[in-house]
Design goal:
The protein has 77 residues and is an all-alpha fold. It contains 5 helices and no strands.
């Protein structure tokens, strides 16, 4: 099925789940990814969508492939 827009709540939930599975706080992840904690929090709540650059930084900081995060987002759509 095709969706015309990407649901930011799904994106945020997937990122949050990856972060929690690694046992990392938002504070630590935002520092490792070099993004603001409030920005990360807004992404995880589905209030903002990450750019590709931000998603790459988050995935690198989590030590997971960006494609794994994208795949999980696609699985939930």
């Amino acid at each position: 099925m095709y969706y015309s827009t990407l649901d930011p709540k799904i994106v945020g939930n997937v990122i949050s789940n990856f972060r929690k599975s690694k046992g990392i706080s938002q504070e630590v992840l935002s520092g490792l990814a070099d993004i603001g904690r409030t920005h990360l929090s807004a992404i995880e709540r589905g209030e903002r969508k990450p750019t590709l650059e931000t998603l790459y930084r988050i995935s690198t900081a989590l030590d997971v492939r960006m494609s794994d995060i994208v795949r999980e987002i696609e699985n939930r759509l």
